[in-house]
Amino acid sequence: MPRYRIDLEYDGGPYAGWQRQAGLPTVQQAVEEAIFRLSGETVSIRGAGRTDAGVHATAQVAHVDLMKQWRGDTVRDALNAHLRQAGERVAVLAAAQVGDDFDARFSALGRHYLYRISNRRAPPALDKGKVWWVPKALDAGAMHHAAQLLLGRHDFTTFRSSQCQANSPIRTLDRLDVTRLGDEIEIRASARSFLHNQVRSMVGSLKRVGDGAWTSADLGAALEAANRAACGQVAPPDGLYLTGVDYPDG
Amino acid sequence: MPRYRIDLEYDGGPYAGWQRQAGLPTVQQAVEEAIFRLSGETVSIRGAGRTDAGVHATAQVAHVDLMKQWRGDTVRDALNAHLRQAGERVAVLAAAQVGDDFDARFSALGRHYLYRISNRRAPPALDKGKVWWVPKALDAGAMHHAAQLLLGRHDFTTFRSSQCQANSPIRTLDRLDVTRLGDEIEIRASARSFLHNQVRSMVGSLKRVGDGAWTSADLGAALEAANRAACGQVAPPDGLYLTGVDYPDG
């Protein structure tokens, strides 16, 4: 059966996350139903990142096996037509046939996330649901400086959801950059893989550094504690975007 | 009575435009109701730009006279609290007391608009309602080149709504820049003032240049015709943002 790679953008707001859940709208279900309308096949697609409820994606990657040979552009346009008709907030950016060895989840070499904080006194009107609103002034420079303590290979138990199903809390964080663009603070995180809630947990703790409640040393101590209780607030899903997934050969 | 300048951001999607209309939700009404909840006064605010239904603003400016002296920050925070409580998609970015001679509409020396086109095969999922989706590839360079023909002082009857109430169709266009940023085309327009639907009419005609239906010369001929029938499609409101208003002394 030919395998297809499908690149997706979605507004996570209306969804209970990526993964299928009985009785709740999910992104996976929306795409699988669009595939059913295209080919009549009941499929199970696999995504690179199992984003949580309310988390967005500008570049999620999934794969699916279909009975028939289709042109990639046909799959993209047909799925988009079905998704729009169903009123879904999901779009197929690209679809292409790939080899049988491609697995959206297990072939991934790197995952990239963006977290957006709106740091101003006025609540977001245009970006409601798309940013975390923090009215208190944050020191983005201090946040970036502290963030560098989290780079490298660590036990990230502190920044891991109690529901995380990964076998090990050890991860290697390759990038955690904090930059200010006017009233907005952008945090960019990259790693081969992340623990459940890891980005939002790190962002919530960095926010404490930004508003002066924590020093850099406090953040380092929280990491070393390897204890969920040492984590700051978990940042809300609104500001989080899966922005890219790396694979061998591009 | 002290006069206040109020800077506003809004998502135009849920509103029938800026200006009060009986029985329809408008931005003006949302702000006036928030002011009533703050001070108990029934006021009429005046905005710099009377944006149409569905048009957004990152920096609309309005003014209002209130009975009492308030700190600007107090007005901003209180109005934001009332707007949020009412579920409005409007935020007060800043509020400050100004002189009696400040008039948000008549003191304005320049108005700036941004128009966003999403130019890709996939429909917008994250930016739904915030961009004009044009799946056919557009030549942004050709659009920019042609746009320069519209600069300067002209009779803009071609690019004017039949419902426009301005006394004269003569306007001076100071800027009309078209740039591509990845899949997005941004059009930035500046003038002392615009006719009703002028930006959307110019964008709709530029889109014809971008997709090859029109040459630059066709756009110039449309301008010279000074005839509404010569206009291309009026671009939808979704992509339009009022991004700034200039006043004397900043």
TrEMBL record, chains A, B:
<feature type="active site" description="Nucleophile">
    <location>
        <position position="52"/>
    </location>
</feature>
<protein>
    <recommendedName>
        <fullName>tRNA pseudouridine synthase A</fullName>
        <ecNumber>5.4.99.12</ecNumber>
    </recommendedName>
</protein>
<keyword id="KW-0819">tRNA processing</keyword>
<dbReference type="InterPro" id="IPR020103">
    <property type="entry name" value="PsdUridine_synth_cat_dom_sf"/>
</dbReference>
<dbReference type="InterPro" id="IPR001406">
    <property type="entry name" value="PsdUridine_synth_TruA"/>
</dbReference>
<feature type="domain" description="Pseudouridine synthase I TruA alpha/beta">
    <location>
        <begin position="146"/>
        <end position="248"/>
    </location>
</feature>
<comment type="subunit">
    <text>Homodimer.</text>
</comment>
<comment type="similarity">
    <text>Belongs to the tRNA pseudouridine synthase TruA family.</text>
</comment>
<dbReference type="InterPro" id="IPR020094">
    <property type="entry name" value="TruA/RsuA/RluB/E/F_N"/>
</dbReference>
<feature type="domain" description="Pseudouridine synthase I TruA alpha/beta">
    <location>
        <begin position="9"/>
        <end position="106"/>
    </location>
</feature>
<dbReference type="InterPro" id="IPR020095">
    <property type="entry name" value="PsdUridine_synth_TruA_C"/>
</dbReference>
<dbReference type="GO" id="GO:0031119">
    <property type="term" value="P:tRNA pseudouridine synthesis"/>
</dbReference>
<keyword id="KW-0413">Isomerase</keyword>
<comment type="function">
    <text>Formation of pseudouridine at positions 38, 39 and 40 in the anticodon stem and loop of transfer RNAs.</text>
</comment>
<feature type="binding site">
    <location>
        <position position="113"/>
    </location>
    <ligand>
        <name>substrate</name>
    </ligand>
</feature>
<dbReference type="Pfam" id="PF01416">
    <property type="entry name" value="PseudoU_synth_1"/>
</dbReference>
<dbReference type="GO" id="GO:0160147">
    <property type="term" value="F:tRNA pseudouridine(38-40) synthase activity"/>
</dbReference>
<dbReference type="GO" id="GO:0003723">
    <property type="term" value="F:RNA binding"/>
</dbReference>
<dbReference type="InterPro" id="IPR020097">
    <property type="entry name" value="PsdUridine_synth_TruA_a/b_dom"/>
</dbReference>
